[in-house]
Design brief:
This protein is an all-alpha fold. It is about 65% helix and about 0% strand.
């Protein structure tokens, strides 16, 4: 197999289920590709560049095939669909959200997605200045949500302490009756519903604050 940045990034992502992000090293990636570590440095100079390449792979896969909203499609539903795509792409890999957090994705797919988002919001009546705020908000919420989701999923735990049944056993129901009563809601394992609800709250807030500023 001919080495290039994409091949190396995919090999690193494939290792995450076994070693996690903290255990990922250039040496392990090289071993997975059956080469010596110095061979990787022709393509990625260090682990920082490797993480950027991994993030690029995750993001490009997420937005593959994304187009402008169909005729009659609400801009909010389009934005939710984009966020769902990104979440699913990160969830394909252990620590997938941590891979994307703080990395630099310099790829046509990123700039095309930003452009599509700006055009979609402009068509919905946003000024460009207003539209420019929306993409980072959705990106940061999605990455942050999945970081927490993957942490709670607890691959490293023998018994997940975030599970509602576990939490119920440690809460003092006399001192914290409301918390105890709502454990299933506060610590839900229905991440799909929780993610969707959060997105809709954020989008409603964007609409509301935009309206207030306009007035």
């Amino acid at each position: 197999m001919k080495l290039d940045t994409q091949v190396i990034a995919q090999a690193a992502l494939d290792l995450l289920d076994d070693v996690g992000l903290e255990g990922l090293t250039m040496r392990k990636v090289a071993a997975a590709l059956d080469v010596q570590a110095p061979a990787l440095y022709w393509h990625v100079k260090n682990k920082r560049e490797l993480l950027d390449a991994m993030a690029r792979t995750v993001f490009v896969a997420a937005v593959d095939g994304v187009e402008a909203p169909r005729q009659g499609e609400d801009w909010q539903e389009w934005a939710i669909g984009l966020a769902i795509r990104l979440r699913r792409s990160m969830l394909r890999y252990r620590d997938g959200a941590n891979v994307l957090a703080g990395t630099y994705v310099n790829d046509e797919a990123m700039w095309r997605t930003v452009e599509l988002t700006l055009r979609t919001l402009e068509d919905a009546g946003f000024t460009l200045a207003e539209a420019a705020r929306v993409f980072p908000i959705l990106l940061h919420y999605t990455v942050g949500f999945v970081i927490e989701e993957q942490a709670r999923s607890g691959a490293e735990y023998d018994s997940n302490p975030y599970h509602p049944e576990q939490i119920e056993t440690v809460i003092d129901t006399v001192r914290y009756p409301l918390t105890a009563k709502l454990v299933d809601i506060l610590f839900t394992a229905d991440y799909d519903a929780e993610f969707d609800h959060g997105l809709r709250v954020i989008l409603a807030g964007i609409v509301a604050t935009r309206t207030e500023e306009a007035n």
